[in-house]
Design brief:
The protein is mostly helical. It is built from 19 helices and no strands. Among the domains are: 1-188, Growth Hormone, Chain: A, CATH 1.20.1250.20; 397-470, Arc Repressor Mutant, subunit A. Helix 1 packs antiparallel against helix 7 (165-183), helix 5 (105-132) packs across helix 13 (322-350) and helix 6 runs antiparallel to helix 9.
Length: 476
């Protein structure tokens, strides 16, 4: 009875920690999205004082990128991560307060450290995602955070545009203050150490994911710089509708049944991006045109943002420093936005209505289509059971065993090799296989090496593909 009570108590604490983590980070992210990260508060304030926002935007994004990339080197455990988060929020509140005063050198002096620490804070959040949310549930944590932060951002934007820039700024500072109070309650103890076996092979999949993120988010940067000015006259609509399709897409993806193959949605989202830019060329600058173009683009952004946020969330188990994983992955996101924004700004400076940005964006879509299959393959070899990476999970356990039995006879695997291979196909770790078969992990590695040698393959993903090819008639 006492054991059951402890388990319930532990579960209760874990759930509370997850909610605390999500709400705290949503409050902080809403400030980041509404103000320094090309937010409407920043644009409203610069318009109020008749100064150009572009002199701040790209410098701030570059500082956020640097902070994301550096976060994993600064935050080494949950204690340093918590301290870094608290320092970031204090710096951010002070920096935001500077913008209640007329433009001066203090604006840049305040924005740069705030943006850098904001990037570090995002990376540091990785520690609390890992400790508060079980594996395979992190897609919900990421989705909840993205939804809540964007809803709050919309409210801040409406206040800044339709009431006053100072009102929006004041609300965002209150959001930071609330985030600070919640961050004080974040746990600071050590997290469970990472099995060194799990860290094998994380670098290449992460690098390929980062490349994919950079390529596809170039479109986001182009959208900010090209589509935004084109529909600037529709401020009454853009102030609130901008992120609505994004929120809806994330909500839908979050609540799809687990058996749903979300991989197809990635291809649908690529098509939506292409159609968005085609619509930008062919449609007028009316409210209907904006509604169509923005719905397609931001809906696709929602699908893809949740894709890599959730993938990075699952990758946290594969490295001793979750801040390094989350920071590195999201720095690719910011880098893509920065590059796309710089390219879009260059095109606008030459000719605002030039079709070149759209043609470039369509070229990026084509490159994305080329990159997606190998990305899927690399990630699936690392985490076959992720909801976006359904490769073998739709086959029943009976189907898996039947396929491995059939192939075993053909490939002449030993009985023990067959047992190890069937468990590899179920996504189990070497440690789990060793425990079930009452052998050492080194022995498991020995059998895996033999299996790969007999199939003439190099990875678990290739083994899965062989099984799929041989078992197309297996029951689902």
């Amino acid at each position: 009875m006492s054991d059951n009570n402890s388990r319930r108590s532990g579960l209760h604490i874990n759930l509370d920690e997850r909610k605390l983590s999500v709400i705290f980070f949503s409050l902080f992210s809403s400030w980041l999205l509404a103000f320094p990260f090309e937010g409407q508060i920043l644009y409203s304030i610069t318009d109020y004082y008749c100064v150009s926002a572009y002199r701040y935007v790209f410098i701030v994004i570059a500082a956020i990128f640097t902070g994301l990339f550096s976060g994993g080197f600064i935050a080494r455990n949950r204690k340093t991560a918590k301290n870094l988060i608290l320092i970031t929020i204090i710096v951010s509140m002070i920096a935001s307060g500077v913008f209640f005063f007329p433009p001066s050198y203090l604006w840049i002096a305040a924005l740069l450290p705030a943006a850098f620490f904001a990037g570090c804070c995002i990376a540091a959040w990785g520690f609390f995602v890992k400790s508060s949310t079980p594996k395979n549930e992190r897609i919900k944590t990421m989705a909840d955070m993205l939804i809540i932060s964007n809803i709050l951002m919309i409210l801040f934007n409406i206040a800044a545009i339709h009431i006053s820039p100072q009102t929006g700024l004041g609300l965002s500072i209150l959001s930071l203050f609330a985030a600070f109070l919640l961050a004080l309650k974040l746990p600071a103890g050590n997290v469970e150490p990472v099995n060194k076996e799990n860290s094998i092979g994380i670098v290449k999949p992460l690098a390929f994911l980062c490349l994919f993120i950079v390529v596809i988010t170039v479109n986001s940067g182009l959208m900010y710089q090209v589509m935004g000015p084109a529909f600037a006259h529709l401020g009454w609509l853009t102030s609130w509708y901008w992120a609505i399709p994004y929120i809806i897409a994330i909500y839908i993806m979050r609540n799809l049944p687990r058996k749903t193959n979300r991989t197809y949605m990635l291809y649908v989202a690529i098509a939506m991006i292409g159609l968005s830019f085609i619509g930008f060329i062919t449609l007028d600058r009316s409210a209907a045109g904006y509604f169509t173009v923005n719905s397609l683009m931001m809906g696709a952004c929602g699908v893809y943002d949740l894709f890599w946020w959730s993938i990075l969330g699952e990758m946290l188990d594969f490295h001793k420093n979750p801040a390094w994983i989350l920071g590195t992955g999201l720095s690719a996101n910011v880098l893509g936005v920065l590059l796309g924004g710089m390219i879009g700004n260059a095109f606008i400076s030459a000719d605002m209505y030039s079709p070149h940005p759209t043609l470039l964006a369509l070229a990026v879509v084509c490159v994305t289509l080329i990159l997606l299959p190998p990305l899927h393959k690399r990630l699936s070899s690392l985490m076959e059971d992720h909801v976006y990476l359904t490769v073998f999970s739709r086959i029943s356990a009976h189907g898996k065993e039947s396929q491995i039995d059939d192939t075993t006879e053909f490939e002449n695997l030993s009985k023990r090799e067959s047992q190890v291979a069937s468990r590899l196909l179920q996504g189990k770790t070497y440690r789990a296989i060793a425990g079930e078969l009452y052998i050492s992990e080194n022995t498991v590695k020995y059998y895996v090496k033999n299996i790969y040698s007999k199939f003439n393959i190099q990875s678990r993903m290739e083994l899965i593909e062989i099984m799929l090819d041989k078992g197309k008639g297996a029951p689902l």
